[in-house]
Write a structure and sequence with these properties.
mainly alpha, 5 helices
Length: about 110
């Protein structure tokens, strides 16, 4: 297997992690770490700023929605509200997209 190939390293890491989890007989928790995507750098807000600058609003919202499963509830709400505030300062963001983001904020806040 070529360890220089990004995809092959990811598959190998996944397989090794799965093997550890399946063969774990002593009850210890196993954690599998995946490498950061190639070319991905900076904070989430910096990446979102770049998407907003490029007017890729739907991609930015999708990225925030993905954070729902990574961040704590309060951090997610803060991030989503931050993006919504940015959207509210712009004239060309689709209202349905803003409403979708707002609904997510309300829904997660109630959990």
């Amino acid at each position: 297997m070529d360890d220089n190939d990004f995809i092959m390293r990811q598959v190998k890491s996944f397989a090794e992690g799965l093997g550890v989890m399946l063969n774990n007989k002593d009850g210890n928790k196993s954690v599998v770490f995946f490498e950061q995507e190639q070319g991905q750098s900076g904070t989430i807000k910096e990446r979102l700023d770049k998407l907003v600058f490029k007017r890729k609003y739907d991609v930015a919202v999708r990225m925030v929605f993905e954070q729902k499963f990574i961040l704590s509830k309060s951090d997610y709400v803060d991030l989503a509200q931050w993006l919504l505030d940015k959207f509210n300062q712009l004239n060309d963001v689709d209202n349905d997209l803003k409403m979708e983001l707002e609904k997510s904020i309300v829904k997660v806040s109630k959990l």
